[in-house]
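SUBJECT: A protein chain and its fold
Encoding: whole-number codes for local backbone shapes
RECORD BEGINS BELOW THIS LINE
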Amino acid sequence: MISHDKQFIFIHPGKCGGTSIKRGLETLSNRTKPKFRLIKPPGHMNLSIAEKIVTEAGGIFENYFKFTMVRNPWDLLVSWYYHYLTAHGLVEVDKPFESWLFKRGLKYKWENFEVFDHVIRLENINSDYRELLKKLSLSPVDLKYHITHNTIRVREKHYSEYYTEHTAAIVHEKYNHVINKFEYKFKL
């Protein structure tokens, strides 16, 4: 999502709560005087695509405020697993978590967090969103949306129950940069 009027770029990584942020910004864009336009490329845009869009519009990419989201990697992968099952009409017995993790889950990639001016943690979505709005000179309001995309995840089951000691360690090794930067822990 890009706003040339407000000069910001939102990079929306999958399964981190970004749809909630997009809906909140869409609502604000219509309420703010003067209104600000939002460009919403389809899918999950990365920084390279955003830079191309900004440059083609005559903007200076380096001058745009860039923000993204992050989520505990162990929890994110379980969420992505259920999103995958739902999208493909499957249930857990069709595609066990560990099998999915090795074939698909460990391919998840984040952008380099160092290039962002602000990172919203899903675990702190409301307070981080209010802080973002202040930085964008928009009225700080609570986020009123929580989008679940109707996935079939069993909410009573904690993400840690999907992992063995071995698979939890593999996720830790693969996403060490995210885990260390944001001080995530594998909680039981």
